[in-house]
Amino acid sequence: xxxxxxxxxxxxxxxxxxxxxxxxxxxxxxxxxxxxxxxxxxxxxxxxxxxxxxxxxxxxxxxxxxxxxxxxxxxxxxxxxxxxxxxxxxxxxxxxxxxxxxxxxxxxxxxxxxxxxxxxxxxxxxxxxxxxxxxxxxxxxxxxxxxxxxxxxxxxxxxxxxxxxx
Length: 166
Fold this sequence. Notes:
The chain is mainly α. The chain has helices at 18-47, 49-52, 58-69, 78-105, 112-141, 150-161. One of its GO terms (molecular function) is ferrous iron transmembrane transporter activity.
């Protein structure tokens, strides 16, 4: 049986202010996405026509990327993703979640319906932030269009294909 430490501080979500929740959500979401970035890169490569025609698995895709493009290709576009999408998207997600949960709860913050509606509402807003940058990052990451970077990709797509492409 575990012994409770009476000197340890007790943590409650209610003790945090909104800005603290937003920063914590941004850091946690960014760390998760940056950690999984190489896996997402390999996933995108395996979906790409030149890889999918070879029917390669994840190990073969990793070997091909490292041999043909170098190890840094696994992280191509990561800083754009971090600063352009994931940090701000997580920031929006956690702030909208907390505000909508408090607004909808009407005195019962543990109502599961409130949590579901709040998460759905916030997902829409966080994807509105992350999707355009993610699309540009994927094009840059996969080498479509010979872009200088994600922002160059976003500018050219907007100019050549229109804002609706995002």
